């Protein structure tokens, strides 16, 4: 009689292990968060008339003097942000990257961008007194 409960416990353990393994192995996305002072090396866009527009910047860590520093292509969703960014300027940025297993590179998007040492206003502005 003791063999039957032991067999059921073994089967439950194996099924649980396989379920956990399945969920771990099927998550095919990887995520990366980056914060740095970035120097904007390139600012570009592509417009597909009547359909969409893509805007992005390419930059690297302004504090890395090495010749082989990593460059990041960061996509921009809001044209107002794109219009304010200038090539050759430094910005404090944080951005997030997402990549599927089959993708060669991360797709980065801005979370925050500001001028180093600049001020940030908070709250709502008044239009009329």
From TrEMBL:
The chain crosses the membrane at residues 7-25. It comes from the Bacteria. Keywords: Membrane, Transmembrane, Transmembrane helix. This is Uncharacterized protein.
């Amino acid at each position: 009689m003791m063999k039957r409960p032991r067999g059921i416990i073994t089967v439950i353990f194996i099924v649980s292990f396989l379920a956990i393994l399945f969920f771990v192995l099927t998550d095919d996305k990887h995520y990366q968060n980056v914060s740095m002072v970035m120097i904007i090396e390139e600012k570009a866009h592509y417009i597909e008339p009547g359909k969409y527009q893509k805007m992005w910047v390419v930059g690297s860590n302004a504090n890395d003097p090495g010749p082989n520093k990593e460059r990041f292509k960061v996509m921009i969703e809001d044209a107002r942000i794109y219009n304010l960014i200038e090539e050759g300027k430094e910005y404090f940025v944080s951005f997030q990257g997402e990549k599927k297993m089959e993708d060669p590179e991360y797709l980065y998007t801005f979370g925050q961008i500001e001028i180093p040492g600049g001020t940030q206003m908070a709250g709502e502005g008044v239009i009329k007194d």
